[in-house]
Amino acid sequence: MLMTCDIDGVVGDIVTALLREVNGRFGTRFNSEICAKYKTAENLPKQYQEYANVAYRDPRLLQKVPLFPDALWGLQELVAMGISVTLMTGRGASEEWYGDRSIVARKFTFDWIVNNELPVNGVLFVDPSEKHCYAKLFGVAIEDDLAVVRRMAAPAFVDTVLLMDRPWNRSAGAIPGVERVKGWKGVVEALRRKGK
Ligand SMILES: [Mg+2]
Asked: Distance from the CA of 23 to the center of ligand 1, in angstroms?
């Protein structure tokens, strides 16, 4: 069976990568629990936002994104269950990426997948506003972005939508047609339960 999986916030911890840049520059100790919103710079006190915004727009940040501790294990479990995983990301594809940055972002993303030995079939670079259309082809999708999961869960769209529980999506509570999962253990359990 086929599944698609978001990268940032699901497999890769780009929030921690960004906060490490800020902490390294200012000697602060911010961690991802402060992030009530996905646009990370806005979660920080004002004096750090400009630096964070510049760091966030630098494609080199993509090379420093750590895997969530259970992500590799989770992907390997899915492969063992016979599930084929294709990554899908807005990196390089949405309007916030333009020109050479878009090309570099895609190159760094391919390198990152290879370097981390992720057991995936490929990667799609898709504008987030269209992710639900592509996800329909897969039938199962994992995301951390509330706007994206809401579109995916709309009637007649994606059969199984999993929302990876993260600090920046907790305020939403329950969303019809969406199952909130805690970490990759939660993903594996949810898909086992569904017999997918
Ligand atoms: Mg994401």
From this structure: 22
